[in-house]
Amino acid sequence: MSAARQPRQRRPRQKRSLTAQLASVVLGFEAIIVFLGGLVIFGLKVLPAGIPDWVGIVAGTVVAVVMVATAGFVHKPAGIATGWVLQAIVALSAFLVPAMLLIALIFGGMWAYATIQGPRIEARTRAAAPEGEAQ
To answer: How far apart are CA 135 and CA 132, in angstroms?
Structure first.
């Protein structure tokens, strides 16, 4: 072994787009709320008859973990699509627990804003930037 070992050079991280930043923040906070919602569903036993109470906590945990995982790859088109699927799952959960509709509306609106307005804001920023300046 050599006594003077040189540290490896790290690759510079690629700058994330505004859309990816906004989308990952929305999914991160929504994951917390969905997990807590699952705990509330479990604790208050508000699921319809025939569905065991533990399903609320398990479903909330699974959806929250998938949201956190999706937040890591929202810079890819598949990440944005997965985020839309997760928004639909949260909205569909309102059929079992109507209070989940409030979460779906709030975070669905923020998700839509992040994924629709984000690219528009980025395009406007690129158009307004001076010619030689890199964004």
So the answer is: 10
For residues 72 and 16, give the distance between their C-alpha atoms in angstroms, rounded to a whole number.
11
Residues in the chain with pLDDT values less than 50? none
Look at the block and give the residue holding tokens 């799952």.
Answer: 89
Give every CB contact of residue 121 below 8 A, 6+ residues apart in sequence. Answer: 18
C-alpha span between 113 and 35 (Å, rounded): 23
Could you state, in order of their start, the residue ranges of all structural domains in the chain? 22-119
Chain center to CA of 132: 34
Residue 111 CB neighbours (<10 A): 22
* 69 alpha carbon, distance to own chain's centre: 8
Q: Are 131 and 125 in contact (CB under 8 A)?
A: no
pLDDT digits (tens, 9 = 90+) for 81-114: 999 999 999 999 999 999 999 999 999 999 999 9
Q: First CA to last CA across the chain, in angstroms? A: 43
Q: Which two tokens stand for residue 59?
A: 């479903």
